[in-house]
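1st attempt posting a full record on here, be nice pls
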Amino acid sequence: MNKLLLRIFTVFVLTLGFLSTYSAVIQGNEPDYAGKELVFTTYTDPITKNKKEIFKIIINADGLFKKEIDLSETIYCHSEFGIYKGLLILEPQSELLLKLPPLREKTVLESKNPYFEPILLWLRVESDKNEEVNKLVSNLEGRYIQLTNTYFNQLYYQKSEIHLDSVKIKLQDEFGGYQNPIIKNQLKFKLKILESDINKAKHQTVFEELNPVTFSFLNPAFIDLLNLVFNNKLSFEISSIHGSELREAVAKVDIKFIKSHFQEKFKLESSLADFVLLKLLHDGYYSNRFPKQSIISMLENPFFLNNPENNINTIAKTIKEKLLFLSPGSSAPVICLNDLMGNQQCSDNINEYGYIIFADSEMLVCREHLKYLLTVSSKFKDNLSLFVVIKNADIGEIKKFIDENKIPGTIVIDDESNFHAKKYKIKSYPSSFLLNSDHTVLLTPAKNPLDGFELEFASFLRSE
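the predicted structure (as tokens):
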């Protein structure tokens, strides 16, 4: 009995050890950011790049902040604020004194530009420890940029192997001596990125002997390398010598052939080949060059769902959910928001068909599209319900514009975070969708009012 109790106690202690979490503490003093809130997220995976919130920093009126985060593993996280996207590595049992860049909010033009890209930077951490991981990675990134800028013409135009070797040697000399596995992987990936960027012939060997056990898929440098080599690679490969066989394999859901093709050509370790295959299927779906149902069938295949690597299983499910979200035949999320009178309105109150439009009333182009809804409504008022979601702004100005132009339909205002626009994954305004009375997606995206929605909807009605 005593031996049994001892075994149970031992298992309990070991299990407790595996589940242990440790705190990371972040603090700082940034008076310019007083009153602001910084949300730090990480990716669920590097393919869909769905964001998952890790923690928030709330900066008080004096600019002070302090946050304790429970961690069981090292996390790569990021936060978008102003014109920046700041990167940070959090390790269990670490204390970080964070220094933010000079405050710079987006201009009106930048905030309205759907193609605006924030300035990417590693957030500065003040520390007496020379081997603090954020300091090392930030220094490596800065040195990498400095060297590649110095030899830009020789590297990217002349394709000079001598200058490539020179940059590699300098980076190795300066950062190769650190034993921290994070900095070792960061250096390795940056050198591979440089080689692959300069010489595409290197693509076929750059992943050789790369073992996923030794690094995180969420390392930003790995994500950059993955995208550099494999973005839309499935579409590219069908134009190669064995392209017809590859196209046929996709149509027949022949996963083994596709995996074998890429594993042999790019010299991939088996589990890494499974991961790359998910990236290929994700991009291939959006290329519209392959049967979409074949790609969905592969993601549902036991090859992925019963994969011994748990992250492969999870990523396959996540990709499938992303690909099918708001696709024709799927159920669209119901939107319930207050209208201009403060009364709640929901988007599932549809007669026969529902036309949902996301718009920014501060943008001239959106205003013109919304004005044209009068014409759309007059032609299809018996068949079509209009539901307009306005980006959060000054409600008085929105109401004035709506009243002056007699915009028809149900008009609602998104919340302060524009939650519903994010939920529908709106990248630019205006964006439109056509639903039926069951709130099922019929057209995604539907044409915007001035872009030919009348003809599109009329054609749809005829086909129905």
